[in-house]
Write a structure and sequence with these properties.
The chain is an alpha+beta fold and 478 residues long. The protein has 12 helices and 25 strands. It has 4 domains: 2-46, no CATH class; 57-276, Thrombin, subunit H, CATH 2.40.10.120; 283-369, PDZ domain (Pdz3 Domain); 382-477, PDZ domain (Pdz3 Domain), CATH 2.30.42. The radius of gyration is 26 Å and the shape is globular.
Length: 478
Protein backbone atom coordinates (compact mmCIF):
# COMPACT_ATOMS: atom_id res chain seq x y z
CA UNK A 1 0.00 0.00 0.00
CA UNK A 2 2.86 2.36 0.83
CA UNK A 3 4.38 1.88 -2.61
CA UNK A 4 1.04 2.62 -4.28
CA UNK A 5 0.70 5.87 -2.35
CA UNK A 6 4.26 6.87 -3.22
CA UNK A 7 3.73 6.26 -6.94
CA UNK A 8 0.53 8.28 -6.86
CA UNK A 9 2.23 11.13 -5.03
CA UNK A 10 5.03 11.25 -7.60
CA UNK A 11 2.55 11.20 -10.47
CA UNK A 12 0.52 13.93 -8.82
CA UNK A 13 3.58 16.13 -8.40
CA UNK A 14 4.60 15.67 -12.03
CA UNK A 15 1.10 16.53 -13.16
CA UNK A 16 1.02 19.63 -10.96
CA UNK A 17 4.37 20.75 -12.34
CA UNK A 18 3.14 20.39 -15.94
CA UNK A 19 -0.09 22.20 -15.18
CA UNK A 20 1.70 24.98 -13.35
CA UNK A 21 4.13 25.39 -16.23
CA UNK A 22 1.27 25.83 -18.67
CA UNK A 23 -0.60 28.29 -16.48
CA UNK A 24 2.57 30.23 -15.76
CA UNK A 25 3.16 30.54 -19.49
CA UNK A 26 -0.41 31.33 -20.48
CA UNK A 27 -1.65 33.57 -17.68
CA UNK A 28 1.41 35.58 -16.75
CA UNK A 29 1.80 37.58 -19.93
CA UNK A 30 3.45 34.82 -21.97
CA UNK A 31 7.15 34.14 -22.39
CA UNK A 32 9.70 33.75 -25.13
CA UNK A 33 9.82 29.99 -24.50
CA UNK A 34 7.80 27.47 -22.53
CA UNK A 35 9.43 26.92 -19.13
CA UNK A 36 9.33 24.50 -16.23
CA UNK A 37 8.37 26.15 -12.90
CA UNK A 38 11.34 27.07 -10.76
CA UNK A 39 9.84 27.51 -7.29
CA UNK A 40 7.05 26.34 -4.98
CA UNK A 41 4.88 29.37 -5.77
CA UNK A 42 4.80 28.49 -9.45
CA UNK A 43 4.07 24.84 -8.70
CA UNK A 44 0.97 25.70 -6.67
CA UNK A 45 -0.58 27.77 -9.43
CA UNK A 46 -4.07 26.69 -10.54
CA UNK A 47 -6.22 26.55 -13.66
CA UNK A 48 -9.03 28.19 -11.70
CA UNK A 49 -8.54 31.72 -13.16
CA UNK A 50 -8.60 30.27 -16.66
CA UNK A 51 -11.74 28.27 -15.93
CA UNK A 52 -13.48 31.32 -14.44
CA UNK A 53 -12.68 33.31 -17.58
CA UNK A 54 -13.80 30.72 -20.14
CA UNK A 55 -16.42 28.39 -18.65
CA UNK A 56 -19.32 30.91 -18.60
CA UNK A 57 -19.20 30.97 -22.41
CA UNK A 58 -19.71 27.20 -22.63
CA UNK A 59 -23.43 26.44 -22.70
CA UNK A 60 -25.72 23.44 -22.45
CA UNK A 61 -27.86 22.63 -25.48
CA UNK A 62 -31.13 20.73 -25.15
CA UNK A 63 -32.95 19.57 -28.27
CA UNK A 64 -36.25 17.83 -28.86
CA UNK A 65 -38.02 16.44 -31.88
CA UNK A 66 -41.38 14.79 -32.42
CA UNK A 67 -41.25 11.27 -33.84
CA UNK A 68 -44.42 9.66 -35.18
CA UNK A 69 -44.66 6.09 -33.98
CA UNK A 70 -46.96 3.52 -35.56
CA UNK A 71 -48.59 0.79 -33.56
CA UNK A 72 -47.65 -1.04 -30.38
CA UNK A 73 -44.22 -0.57 -28.78
CA UNK A 74 -43.95 -4.38 -28.75
CA UNK A 75 -43.02 -4.13 -32.40
CA UNK A 76 -39.96 -2.01 -31.58
CA UNK A 77 -38.39 -5.29 -30.47
CA UNK A 78 -35.30 -6.11 -32.56
CA UNK A 79 -36.79 -9.55 -33.31
CA UNK A 80 -39.66 -8.00 -35.23
CA UNK A 81 -37.47 -5.32 -36.81
CA UNK A 82 -35.21 -8.03 -38.14
CA UNK A 83 -38.04 -9.25 -40.35
CA UNK A 84 -40.12 -6.14 -40.98
CA UNK A 85 -37.65 -3.26 -40.74
CA UNK A 86 -39.04 0.16 -39.88
CA UNK A 87 -42.35 -0.40 -41.67
CA UNK A 88 -44.67 -3.21 -40.63
CA UNK A 89 -46.79 -4.87 -43.33
CA UNK A 90 -49.91 -4.15 -41.29
CA UNK A 91 -51.15 -1.54 -38.83
CA UNK A 92 -51.30 -2.47 -35.16
CA UNK A 93 -52.91 0.02 -32.83
CA UNK A 94 -53.19 3.77 -33.28
CA UNK A 95 -50.18 5.85 -34.26
CA UNK A 96 -48.86 8.38 -31.78
CA UNK A 97 -46.26 11.07 -31.45
CA UNK A 98 -43.26 10.58 -29.22
CA UNK A 99 -40.83 13.31 -28.16
CA UNK A 100 -37.12 12.46 -28.28
CA UNK A 101 -34.72 14.63 -26.27
CA UNK A 102 -30.95 14.91 -26.49
CA UNK A 103 -28.22 16.84 -24.76
CA UNK A 104 -24.99 18.48 -25.88
CA UNK A 105 -22.76 21.48 -25.36
CA UNK A 106 -21.99 24.68 -27.25
CA UNK A 107 -19.79 27.77 -27.16
CA UNK A 108 -20.83 31.43 -27.23
CA UNK A 109 -18.67 33.29 -29.72
CA UNK A 110 -20.35 36.70 -30.06
CA UNK A 111 -22.18 39.04 -27.74
CA UNK A 112 -25.17 39.07 -30.09
CA UNK A 113 -25.82 35.41 -29.28
CA UNK A 114 -23.96 33.36 -31.90
CA UNK A 115 -23.31 29.84 -30.61
CA UNK A 116 -21.31 27.05 -32.23
CA UNK A 117 -21.91 23.36 -31.58
CA UNK A 118 -21.82 20.05 -33.47
CA UNK A 119 -24.12 19.24 -36.36
CA UNK A 120 -24.91 15.88 -34.77
CA UNK A 121 -25.97 17.58 -31.52
CA UNK A 122 -28.87 19.45 -33.11
CA UNK A 123 -29.60 16.93 -35.88
CA UNK A 124 -33.14 17.45 -37.19
CA UNK A 125 -34.38 18.95 -33.91
CA UNK A 126 -37.76 20.68 -33.81
CA UNK A 127 -36.80 22.78 -30.80
CA UNK A 128 -33.43 23.96 -29.48
CA UNK A 129 -32.87 25.43 -26.03
CA UNK A 130 -29.59 26.97 -24.88
CA UNK A 131 -28.91 27.24 -21.14
CA UNK A 132 -26.07 29.37 -19.76
CA UNK A 133 -24.12 28.65 -16.60
CA UNK A 134 -26.04 31.43 -14.82
CA UNK A 135 -29.30 29.52 -15.58
CA UNK A 136 -30.54 31.91 -18.27
CA UNK A 137 -32.41 30.06 -21.00
CA UNK A 138 -32.87 31.00 -24.66
CA UNK A 139 -34.49 29.41 -27.66
CA UNK A 140 -32.19 29.27 -30.67
CA UNK A 141 -32.44 29.23 -34.45
CA UNK A 142 -30.09 27.40 -36.81
CA UNK A 143 -28.04 29.74 -39.00
CA UNK A 144 -26.06 26.96 -40.67
CA UNK A 145 -25.50 23.28 -40.05
CA UNK A 146 -22.74 21.56 -42.00
CA UNK A 147 -22.70 17.78 -41.84
CA UNK A 148 -19.37 17.51 -43.67
CA UNK A 149 -17.49 19.29 -40.87
CA UNK A 150 -19.98 18.34 -38.11
CA UNK A 151 -20.30 22.02 -37.17
CA UNK A 152 -23.54 23.94 -36.58
CA UNK A 153 -24.02 27.64 -35.89
CA UNK A 154 -26.97 28.85 -33.80
CA UNK A 155 -28.39 32.30 -32.99
CA UNK A 156 -30.11 32.95 -29.68
CA UNK A 157 -33.60 34.42 -29.95
CA UNK A 158 -33.87 37.82 -28.28
CA UNK A 159 -30.65 37.64 -26.23
CA UNK A 160 -30.74 39.87 -23.16
CA UNK A 161 -28.01 41.05 -20.84
CA UNK A 162 -24.29 40.63 -21.24
CA UNK A 163 -23.26 37.37 -22.81
CA UNK A 164 -19.86 35.79 -22.04
CA UNK A 165 -17.81 34.84 -25.09
CA UNK A 166 -14.60 33.03 -26.01
CA UNK A 167 -12.28 34.37 -28.68
CA UNK A 168 -10.82 32.20 -31.41
CA UNK A 169 -7.27 30.90 -31.23
CA UNK A 170 -5.16 29.74 -34.19
CA UNK A 171 -5.33 25.94 -34.24
CA UNK A 172 -2.43 25.86 -36.72
CA UNK A 173 -0.16 27.07 -33.90
CA UNK A 174 -0.89 24.07 -31.67
CA UNK A 175 1.86 21.59 -30.98
CA UNK A 176 1.76 18.07 -29.64
CA UNK A 177 2.26 18.34 -25.89
CA UNK A 178 0.46 21.69 -25.45
CA UNK A 179 -1.90 21.71 -22.48
CA UNK A 180 -5.62 22.15 -23.16
CA UNK A 181 -8.89 22.16 -21.23
CA UNK A 182 -12.10 20.46 -22.37
CA UNK A 183 -15.29 22.11 -21.08
CA UNK A 184 -18.75 20.64 -21.51
CA UNK A 185 -21.68 18.86 -19.90
CA UNK A 186 -20.90 15.11 -19.88
CA UNK A 187 -23.80 12.76 -19.16
CA UNK A 188 -25.92 15.79 -18.20
CA UNK A 189 -24.33 16.01 -14.74
CA UNK A 190 -23.51 19.71 -15.12
CA UNK A 191 -20.64 21.70 -16.51
CA UNK A 192 -17.34 19.86 -16.12
CA UNK A 193 -13.74 20.85 -16.86
CA UNK A 194 -11.04 18.31 -17.69
CA UNK A 195 -7.42 18.90 -18.58
CA UNK A 196 -4.95 17.12 -20.81
CA UNK A 197 -2.47 17.62 -23.59
CA UNK A 198 -2.66 17.72 -27.35
CA UNK A 199 -1.90 14.08 -28.16
CA UNK A 200 -1.84 14.44 -31.92
CA UNK A 201 -2.54 16.83 -34.78
CA UNK A 202 -4.00 16.40 -38.26
CA UNK A 203 -5.63 13.08 -37.46
CA UNK A 204 -7.07 12.30 -40.89
CA UNK A 205 -7.73 8.59 -40.49
CA UNK A 206 -10.68 9.19 -38.17
CA UNK A 207 -13.84 8.58 -40.20
CA UNK A 208 -16.06 11.08 -38.39
CA UNK A 209 -16.60 13.79 -41.00
CA UNK A 210 -15.86 14.43 -44.65
CA UNK A 211 -13.19 17.06 -43.97
CA UNK A 212 -11.03 15.11 -41.54
CA UNK A 213 -8.15 16.74 -39.70
CA UNK A 214 -8.77 16.52 -35.99
CA UNK A 215 -6.98 17.61 -32.87
CA UNK A 216 -6.49 14.57 -30.65
CA UNK A 217 -6.41 15.06 -26.89
CA UNK A 218 -6.33 12.92 -23.76
CA UNK A 219 -8.52 15.41 -21.85
CA UNK A 220 -11.52 13.38 -20.71
CA UNK A 221 -14.42 13.76 -23.18
CA UNK A 222 -17.67 11.88 -22.62
CA UNK A 223 -21.20 11.82 -24.09
CA UNK A 224 -22.67 15.30 -23.62
CA UNK A 225 -19.30 16.98 -24.21
CA UNK A 226 -20.02 17.13 -27.94
CA UNK A 227 -20.02 20.75 -29.11
CA UNK A 228 -18.10 21.93 -26.06
CA UNK A 229 -14.90 23.97 -26.00
CA UNK A 230 -11.30 22.87 -26.24
CA UNK A 231 -9.32 25.87 -25.00
CA UNK A 232 -5.61 26.56 -24.70
CA UNK A 233 -3.84 27.98 -21.65
CA UNK A 234 -4.47 31.52 -22.88
CA UNK A 235 -8.22 30.97 -22.79
CA UNK A 236 -8.69 30.86 -26.56
CA UNK A 237 -10.92 28.45 -28.42
CA UNK A 238 -8.73 26.02 -30.36
CA UNK A 239 -11.31 23.34 -31.10
CA UNK A 240 -14.87 22.06 -30.75
CA UNK A 241 -15.03 18.66 -29.05
CA UNK A 242 -16.65 16.22 -31.44
CA UNK A 243 -16.02 12.54 -30.76
CA UNK A 244 -14.21 9.96 -28.70
CA UNK A 245 -12.66 6.61 -29.46
CA UNK A 246 -14.20 4.21 -27.00
CA UNK A 247 -15.22 0.58 -26.66
CA UNK A 248 -17.29 1.25 -23.56
CA UNK A 249 -18.99 4.55 -24.40
CA UNK A 250 -16.90 6.46 -21.86
CA UNK A 251 -13.63 8.33 -22.13
CA UNK A 252 -10.53 6.22 -22.71
CA UNK A 253 -8.14 9.09 -23.24
CA UNK A 254 -8.63 9.45 -26.99
CA UNK A 255 -10.84 12.41 -27.89
CA UNK A 256 -11.12 14.46 -31.07
CA UNK A 257 -11.93 18.10 -31.72
CA UNK A 258 -12.60 20.06 -34.92
CA UNK A 259 -9.80 22.66 -35.21
CA UNK A 260 -10.83 26.26 -34.59
CA UNK A 261 -9.67 27.42 -38.02
CA UNK A 262 -12.31 25.21 -39.63
CA UNK A 263 -14.90 26.34 -37.09
CA UNK A 264 -14.08 29.98 -37.84
CA UNK A 265 -14.68 29.35 -41.55
CA UNK A 266 -18.13 27.83 -40.97
CA UNK A 267 -19.12 30.56 -38.50
CA UNK A 268 -18.05 33.28 -40.95
CA UNK A 269 -20.31 31.89 -43.66
CA UNK A 270 -23.21 31.52 -41.22
CA UNK A 271 -22.97 35.11 -39.99
CA UNK A 272 -22.71 36.43 -43.54
CA UNK A 273 -25.80 34.43 -44.48
CA UNK A 274 -23.93 32.78 -47.32
CA UNK A 275 -23.67 29.10 -48.28
CA UNK A 276 -20.48 27.40 -47.19
CA UNK A 277 -18.44 27.10 -50.39
CA UNK A 278 -14.97 25.64 -50.15
CA UNK A 279 -12.07 26.50 -52.47
CA UNK A 280 -11.76 24.39 -55.59
CA UNK A 281 -8.57 22.35 -55.86
CA UNK A 282 -8.96 21.49 -59.52
CA UNK A 283 -6.82 18.36 -59.33
CA UNK A 284 -6.83 14.86 -57.90
CA UNK A 285 -3.97 12.88 -56.50
CA UNK A 286 -2.91 10.17 -54.12
CA UNK A 287 -0.87 10.01 -50.95
CA UNK A 288 2.84 9.38 -51.33
CA UNK A 289 3.41 6.08 -49.51
CA UNK A 290 6.69 4.24 -48.93
CA UNK A 291 6.60 2.57 -52.36
CA UNK A 292 6.00 5.81 -54.25
CA UNK A 293 8.55 7.58 -52.08
CA UNK A 294 11.23 5.03 -53.00
CA UNK A 295 10.38 5.31 -56.68
CA UNK A 296 10.70 9.12 -56.55
CA UNK A 297 13.86 9.04 -54.50
CA UNK A 298 12.36 10.85 -51.52
CA UNK A 299 13.95 10.49 -48.11
CA UNK A 300 10.62 9.85 -46.35
CA UNK A 301 7.02 9.24 -47.44
CA UNK A 302 4.74 12.26 -47.41
CA UNK A 303 2.97 14.67 -49.69
CA UNK A 304 0.47 14.20 -52.50
CA UNK A 305 1.35 13.16 -56.05
CA UNK A 306 -0.84 14.81 -58.70
CA UNK A 307 -2.62 12.38 -61.03
CA UNK A 308 -5.12 14.57 -62.92
CA UNK A 309 -5.47 18.33 -63.42
CA UNK A 310 -8.70 20.01 -64.49
CA UNK A 311 -7.84 22.04 -67.61
CA UNK A 312 -9.63 25.21 -66.49
CA UNK A 313 -9.12 24.99 -62.72
CA UNK A 314 -6.86 26.83 -60.29
CA UNK A 315 -4.31 24.01 -60.29
CA UNK A 316 -3.77 24.37 -64.03
CA UNK A 317 -3.62 28.15 -63.62
CA UNK A 318 -0.92 27.75 -60.97
CA UNK A 319 1.12 25.54 -63.30
CA UNK A 320 0.57 22.24 -61.51
CA UNK A 321 1.30 19.21 -63.68
CA UNK A 322 0.65 15.51 -63.51
CA UNK A 323 3.46 13.84 -61.57
CA UNK A 324 4.19 16.85 -59.36
CA UNK A 325 4.42 16.07 -55.65
CA UNK A 326 2.90 18.70 -53.36
CA UNK A 327 5.21 18.92 -50.35
CA UNK A 328 4.22 22.14 -48.57
CA UNK A 329 1.38 24.63 -48.23
CA UNK A 330 2.27 28.01 -46.73
CA UNK A 331 5.51 26.49 -45.44
CA UNK A 332 3.72 23.66 -43.64
CA UNK A 333 4.49 20.07 -44.65
CA UNK A 334 1.72 18.12 -46.40
CA UNK A 335 1.26 14.69 -44.83
CA UNK A 336 -1.56 13.36 -46.98
CA UNK A 337 -4.36 14.34 -49.33
CA UNK A 338 -7.00 14.59 -46.62
CA UNK A 339 -4.89 17.03 -44.64
CA UNK A 340 -4.23 19.09 -47.79
CA UNK A 341 -7.92 19.20 -48.60
CA UNK A 342 -8.72 20.23 -45.03
CA UNK A 343 -6.18 23.07 -45.10
CA UNK A 344 -7.68 24.53 -48.27
CA UNK A 345 -11.20 24.17 -46.82
CA UNK A 346 -10.27 26.45 -43.89
CA UNK A 347 -9.25 29.30 -46.23
CA UNK A 348 -11.46 32.10 -47.51
CA UNK A 349 -12.28 32.43 -51.19
CA UNK A 350 -10.52 35.14 -53.16
CA UNK A 351 -7.02 34.89 -51.77
CA UNK A 352 -4.00 32.80 -52.67
CA UNK A 353 -1.82 30.26 -50.89
CA UNK A 354 1.81 29.42 -51.54
CA UNK A 355 2.54 25.78 -52.34
CA UNK A 356 5.81 23.98 -53.00
CA UNK A 357 5.94 20.99 -55.34
CA UNK A 358 8.69 18.57 -56.25
CA UNK A 359 9.28 18.39 -60.00
CA UNK A 360 12.19 16.52 -61.57
CA UNK A 361 13.84 16.33 -58.19
CA UNK A 362 13.74 20.08 -57.56
CA UNK A 363 11.36 22.16 -55.39
CA UNK A 364 9.16 24.53 -57.40
CA UNK A 365 7.19 27.32 -55.65
CA UNK A 366 3.71 28.19 -56.94
CA UNK A 367 0.87 30.55 -56.07
CA UNK A 368 -2.51 28.81 -55.87
CA UNK A 369 -5.70 30.89 -56.24
CA UNK A 370 -8.62 30.18 -53.90
CA UNK A 371 -11.67 30.20 -56.16
CA UNK A 372 -15.15 28.70 -55.91
CA UNK A 373 -15.88 25.58 -57.94
CA UNK A 374 -17.99 26.58 -60.97
CA UNK A 375 -21.27 24.96 -61.90
CA UNK A 376 -20.32 24.34 -65.52
CA UNK A 377 -22.17 22.68 -67.11
CA UNK A 378 -25.46 23.54 -65.32
CA UNK A 379 -26.72 20.54 -63.33
CA UNK A 380 -29.94 20.04 -65.38
CA UNK A 381 -31.58 17.80 -62.74
CA UNK A 382 -33.77 15.20 -64.49
CA UNK A 383 -35.86 12.22 -63.38
CA UNK A 384 -35.73 9.22 -65.70
CA UNK A 385 -39.16 7.55 -65.79
CA UNK A 386 -40.66 4.69 -67.82
CA UNK A 387 -39.81 1.03 -68.18
CA UNK A 388 -36.09 1.10 -68.87
CA UNK A 389 -33.11 -0.32 -66.96
CA UNK A 390 -32.31 3.18 -65.70
CA UNK A 391 -35.90 4.16 -64.85
CA UNK A 392 -36.26 5.57 -61.33
CA UNK A 393 -33.03 7.53 -61.14
CA UNK A 394 -32.46 11.24 -60.73
CA UNK A 395 -29.41 12.49 -62.61
CA UNK A 396 -27.48 15.75 -62.87
CA UNK A 397 -24.57 16.99 -64.93
CA UNK A 398 -21.36 16.59 -62.96
CA UNK A 399 -19.62 19.95 -62.51
CA UNK A 400 -16.89 20.96 -60.03
CA UNK A 401 -19.60 22.54 -57.82
CA UNK A 402 -21.75 19.40 -57.81
CA UNK A 403 -18.71 17.20 -57.19
CA UNK A 404 -17.70 19.36 -54.23
CA UNK A 405 -21.20 19.17 -52.76
CA UNK A 406 -21.18 15.38 -53.10
CA UNK A 407 -17.68 15.02 -51.67
CA UNK A 408 -16.11 13.39 -54.72
CA UNK A 409 -13.06 14.47 -56.79
CA UNK A 410 -13.82 17.74 -58.57
CA UNK A 411 -11.95 16.80 -61.75
CA UNK A 412 -14.59 14.19 -62.71
CA UNK A 413 -17.05 14.85 -65.54
CA UNK A 414 -20.14 13.15 -66.88
CA UNK A 415 -23.65 12.39 -65.60
CA UNK A 416 -24.02 11.34 -61.97
CA UNK A 417 -26.88 9.55 -60.25
CA UNK A 418 -28.16 11.84 -57.50
CA UNK A 419 -30.82 9.46 -56.20
CA UNK A 420 -32.51 6.12 -56.88
CA UNK A 421 -36.16 5.48 -56.15
CA UNK A 422 -36.61 2.42 -53.95
CA UNK A 423 -38.33 -0.42 -55.78
CA UNK A 424 -37.74 1.11 -59.22
CA UNK A 425 -36.27 -0.76 -62.19
CA UNK A 426 -32.91 0.95 -61.65
CA UNK A 427 -32.95 -0.03 -57.99
CA UNK A 428 -33.61 -3.68 -58.86
CA UNK A 429 -30.78 -3.87 -61.39
CA UNK A 430 -28.32 -2.42 -58.87
CA UNK A 431 -27.77 1.22 -59.82
CA UNK A 432 -26.76 3.28 -56.76
CA UNK A 433 -26.50 6.97 -55.85
CA UNK A 434 -23.16 8.53 -56.86
CA UNK A 435 -22.76 6.11 -59.77
CA UNK A 436 -21.47 8.01 -62.81
CA UNK A 437 -23.01 6.95 -66.12
CA UNK A 438 -20.15 7.08 -68.60
CA UNK A 439 -21.49 5.13 -71.55
CA UNK A 440 -24.79 3.75 -72.89
CA UNK A 441 -24.92 1.37 -75.87
CA UNK A 442 -21.43 2.38 -76.96
CA UNK A 443 -22.11 6.14 -76.81
CA UNK A 444 -20.07 8.23 -74.40
CA UNK A 445 -22.32 10.14 -72.01
CA UNK A 446 -21.16 13.61 -70.97
CA UNK A 447 -24.50 15.44 -70.53
CA UNK A 448 -27.94 14.65 -69.17
CA UNK A 449 -29.47 15.71 -72.49
CA UNK A 450 -27.66 12.84 -74.25
CA UNK A 451 -29.07 10.35 -71.77
CA UNK A 452 -32.59 11.71 -72.26
CA UNK A 453 -32.31 11.30 -76.06
CA UNK A 454 -31.32 7.65 -75.67
CA UNK A 455 -34.25 7.03 -73.31
CA UNK A 456 -36.67 8.65 -75.76
CA UNK A 457 -35.42 6.34 -78.55
CA UNK A 458 -36.22 3.32 -76.30
CA UNK A 459 -33.61 0.83 -77.54
CA UNK A 460 -34.55 -2.87 -77.01
CA UNK A 461 -31.19 -3.68 -75.46
CA UNK A 462 -29.14 -1.75 -72.95
CA UNK A 463 -25.42 -1.79 -72.22
CA UNK A 464 -24.71 0.73 -69.46
CA UNK A 465 -21.18 1.47 -68.22
CA UNK A 466 -20.86 2.95 -64.74
CA UNK A 467 -18.02 4.47 -62.76
CA UNK A 468 -18.52 3.49 -59.11
CA UNK A 469 -15.82 4.99 -56.90
CA UNK A 470 -13.22 4.52 -59.62
CA UNK A 471 -14.31 0.99 -60.55
CA UNK A 472 -15.72 0.33 -64.03
CA UNK A 473 -18.99 -1.65 -63.97
CA UNK A 474 -20.94 -2.93 -66.98
CA UNK A 475 -24.69 -3.44 -66.78
CA UNK A 476 -26.24 -5.46 -69.65
CA UNK A 477 -30.03 -5.80 -69.91
CA UNK A 478 -32.00 -7.38 -72.74
Amino acid sequence: MTKLRTDFDVMSNVTRILLAAAVSFGLCGGAAAKQIPENQQEITLSFAPLVRATSPAVVNIYTSKVVRQQGNRLFDDPFFRRFFGDRLPFSIGPSRNRVENSLGSGVLLREDGVVVTNHHVIGDADEIKVVLTDKREFSADILLSDERTDIAVLKLQDPKGDLPVIEFGDSDDLEVGDLVLAIGNPFGVGQTVTSGIVSGLARTSVGITDFRSFIQTDAAINPGNSGGALVDVKGRLVGINTAIFSKSGGSQGIGFAVPSNMVRRVVGSAIAGEPLIRPWLGFSGRDVDAEISDALGLETPGGVIVENVHPTGPAAEAGLQRGDVILEVEGRPVDDGQGLRFYFATRELGGTVAITVLRDGRPVPMSFSLMAPPEVPPRDRTDIVGNFPISGIRVVNLSPRVADELGIPTDLTGVIVEGVQRGSVAHRVGIKPLDIITEVNGEEITLVSQLVEIVEDGPPEWLVVLNRQGERLVLEVR
